[in-house]
Design goal:
globular; mainly alpha; two-stranded parallel sheet; 142 residues
Length: 142
């Protein structure tokens, strides 16, 4: 499971669809609807919020909006009806780590996107997050 901190606009179509599916899985886990994945490290930052269910709903809304902008039709009815107005902090090191991880995937899956984003300096975040100074997050499996 990978719940990217970077904006979903950087993902290729395969990555965006995978993010949607993994986000829906994360929503089910955070709602207590699964037996597995309860301690998955990607969920830690959502669990640290004052409303983990609303936080994952906010996350999924942005993913669905990116899909809409590309002409895809993700079923937004699968997102629970909750609003999350806060931001979740993410370290600058985590953002850089994730972006480099994505570039490796794009290098083999989508050369055009790889070339487009390879030298990018200012990496936009998923709208749910705000950047703080720091290294790779402790929960990340490097």
């Amino acid at each position: 499971m990978r719940l990217w901190s970077i904006h979903p606009k950087y993902l290729d179509s395969k990555g965006l669809v995978a993010l949607w599916r993994e986000g829906l899985l994360a929503q089910n886990v955070l709602l207590g609807n699964t037996k597995g994945y309860k301690n998955h490290p990607q969920l830690i930052r959502f669990k640290k919020t004052n409303n983990q269910s609303a936080a994952i709903a906010g996350y999924l809304i942005s993913v669905a909006e990116e899909a809409d902008s590309r002409g895809y039709h993700f079923n937004k009815n699968k997102i629970i009806d909750m609003i999350f107005k806060d931001k979740i902090p993410v370290t600058s090191g985590q953002v850089q780590y994730e972006f480099e991880h994505l570039l490796k995937k794009l290098e083999t899956r989508d050369q055009g996107l790889y070339r487009k984003f390879k030298g990018l300096g200012d990496i936009e975040l998923h709208p749910l997050f705000n950047r703080i100074i720091g290294g790779v997050e402790d929960w990340e499996i490097v």
